[in-house]
Design brief:
Order of helices and strands: EHEEEEHEEEEHEEEEHEEEEHH
Number of domains: 2
CATH topology of the largest domain: 2,3-Dihydroxybiphenyl 1,2-Dioxygenase, domain 1
Distance between the termini: 33 Å
Number of helices: 6
Structural class: alpha/beta
CATH class of the largest domain: Alpha Beta
Largest sheet: 9 strands, mixed
Radius of gyration: 18 Å
CATH superfamily of the largest domain: 2,3-Dihydroxybiphenyl 1,2-Dioxygenase, domain 1
Mean pLDDT: 92
Number of strands: 17
Low-confidence stretches: none
């Protein structure tokens, strides 16, 4: 049952060197730098995104993800979900408006897989970059690099998939769109959506809590993904795998690394999900094809390179 969570709103990523990170997220991915704050954090967005920012970079001694935030339809929804999160047993932190520049109050909470998430309802809206809200052109001039359109989802690794599934479906109102079951019928991967997208967040079972696999950015066409591959090679950026297609979600994809070791994905296409759809199920004996549909075998780096 939908609870009023609309979409992924932002992700805060830890990077080791901000100047090097900006070469990746701003110059290569093509995200637009929107602001900086007195903590030294840098705020970026994809050009189609209406809100002020969707990616926050924070310089740190260790790479990884600090949190992902989900935007809700109203402050009343945030209040209601806050109470439900407490009842579920989450540890909460109320973060005042303005702690992220241009963002309203946020409620941060932990999860059974050890990751931290936020809900919020208010953020400054700056509109699609370079386009008028009235009679907009097809796309803005001045885009750079891969020209990522939006922050789409993240993939996270952790131990308690059942607990996190319960949190996201029963409290936050996400649907289970796709899953991988092992030979014992145990779920080892889950793809969750709050919308019609193939997934807004995904989890893979892993013995350690709170591991970050990748942040993903949406492109419009397969040709855009191939162009991204060219730019990744032109900049000698470390590549994981692709371009290829997933069996899971059927998105067309390429994976590569930022200078800190955080993995990025750009992709196009993918399935859609309505609330009356049953989850799509893959089995672990077809996992190679599920992850990399063309190669049909797993890349060890894809499974083990985490931050």
């Amino acid at each position: 049952m939908k609870k009023g969570v609309m979409r992924p709103g932002h992700i805060q990523i830890r990077v080791l060197d901000m100047d090097e990170a900006l070469k990746h997220y701003r110059d290569l991915l093509g995200l637009i730098e929107m602001d900086r704050d007195d903590q030294g954090r840098v705020y970026l967005k994809g050009w189609t995104e209406v809100d002020k920012f969707s990616v926050v970079l924070r310089e740190s001694d260790t790479p990884g993800m600090d949190f992902t935030g989900y935007k809700c339809v109203s402050e009343a929804v945030v209040d209601q979900l806050r109470e439900e999160l407490i009842a579920f047993g989450c540890q909460l932190e109320d973060i005042p408006a303005g702690e992220l520049k241009g963002c309203g109050r946020r409620v941060r909470f932990d999860s059974p897989t050890g990751h931290h998430f936020e809900i919020y309802a208010t953020k400054e809206q700056t509109g699609k970059w370079g386009l008028s809200p009235t009679n907009p052109e097809a796309w803005p001039r001045g885009l750079t690099g891969i020209k990522a359109t939006r922050f789409d989802h993240c993939l996270l690794y952790g131990d308690d998939l059942d607990g996190t599934l319960k949190l996201f479906t029963e409290v936050l109102g996400f649907d289970l769109a796709e899953q991988v079951l092992d030979e014992n019928n145990t779920r080892v991967a889950q793809f969750l959506t709050a919308s019609m997208k193939a997934h807004d967040v995904a989890f893979i079972k892993h013995p350690e809590k709170n591991k970050f696999h990748h942040a993903s950015f949406y492109l419009e066409t397969w040709e855009d993904v191939l162009r991204a591959a060219d730019l990744i090679s032109m900049t000698d950026t470390s590549i994981d795998i692709g371009p290829t297609r997933h069996g899971l979600t059927h998105g067309k994809t390429i994976y590569f690394f930022d200078p800190s070791g955080n993995r990025s994905e750009v992709f196009c296409g993918g399935d859609y999900h309505y609330p009356d759809h049953e989850p799509v199920t893959w089995t672990t004996d077809s996992l190679g094809k599920a992850i990399f549909y063309h190669d049909r075998q797993l890349n060890e780096r894809f499974l083990t390179a985490l931050t």
